Amino acid sequence: MAKARNGKGAKEANANEEKIDLEAMLRARMSEFSPSEQSLAAYMLDNIQTLPFETGSSIAQAVGVSEMTVSRFVRGLGFENLRDLKNRLRVTVAEKDSDIDDYMARFQMRDGRQQVLQESLRLELDAIVKAYALTTTEIWDEAACALAKARTVYVVGFQASKGLAMDFASRLLWARPNVIFVDNATGTFGEIITADPKQSLVVMVDTAAYAARGIKLAEKLKAMEMPLVIVTDKFSHWAFAYTRFVFEAHTHVKTFWDSTASLSAVLNLMIDAVATKLGPKAKRNFAMMSDMGSLFGEFVGGSYLRRKD
C-alpha cells in the first residue's frame, strides 16, 4: 500500500511540474520571433484548446511552413519535442476546464438552446479568467506604470469598439486627471499628433474588423515614439508590430456577435491597476470628481460615490 501511495504522489507531483502557461510564454517572446515563428506562435495562441490533438504535419500545413520549422520552434521554446509540449499542455487545459465546472452545473435554460448556451458560457467564463491572468504579467505592470505617469492619456476607439473606449476614458478620469477621449471630429487626430510624445500616452481599443484609421494612427505613433497601449481581440496579432503593450482578449463565444465582456474586464482591471499605482492620489482625484458631480447636480447616488472600499 505504501508503494502505491508513493507512486500516486509521484504522479501528482509530475503533473504539477508539467503545468505550463503557453500563452504567456508566446506573448512574452512574440517580438523576438522571426516572421515564420510569429505565424506559428499566432496559430498556437489561436488554437491552444485543440493544440494537444495536433501533429507536426497538421500544424505545418495550417501555417504554411515545414515540419522541421515546427520542430525547431518547439525546441526553441524549451520543450524536448512536440509530444512533450502537448503532454504538458493537456494538463493545463484540463485543469482550466475543471475550474469552471461548478459554474456550469448551476446554469440551466428552459428552451432547446441549453447546450449551445452552456458552451457559450464556458467560453465566456474562460475568457474572463484569461483577462484576469493578464494582470500577473510584467508587461501589464509596465503598462500600468506608464498610464499612471503620463501627463496626458488620449483614448481612441473605432466603430463597435468606440463605446468601450469612451467608457474607459470617462472612468479612468476618476482615477487620474488629463484623460481625453478623442472623437477625431476633424479627421486628423490633431489632438494626439501635436502632443508631446514624452509626456503623453495613447490607449487604443479596436476589434475585428480592424479600422484602417487605427492602423494608420498606430504607424504614426510608432514613428513619433509615443507610448501606445492596444486592447484588442485575438483574431489577429497585428498590434505587436506597433507596441509592446498589447493586451488581447478572447471574444469568440459562439454567439451572434462576439462578446466584449473580456475586453471590458481588461479595461476595468487596467483602471484598477492605475489607481493602485497612484494610491492616495487616485483617492483624492476621485473625491474631487465627486465634488464636481455634486456641484453640477449630476448624480443621485452620493453615498455610493463616497464609499470607503
UniProtKB/TrEMBL annotation:
Gene Ontology process terms (BP): carbohydrate derivative metabolic process
SUPFAM superfamilies, per the entry: Homeodomain-like (SSF46689), SIS domain (SSF53697)
Organism domain of life: Bacteria
Xref: Pfam families: HTH_6, SIS
Xref: Gene3D superfamilies: Glucose-6-phosphate isomerase like protein, domain 1, Winged helix-like DNA-binding domain superfamily/Winged helix DNA-binding domain
Domain HTH rpiR-type: 20-96
Any GO molecular function: DNA binding
Protein's UniProt name: MurR/RpiR family transcriptional regulator
Source species: Pseudaminobacter soli (ex Li et al. 2025)
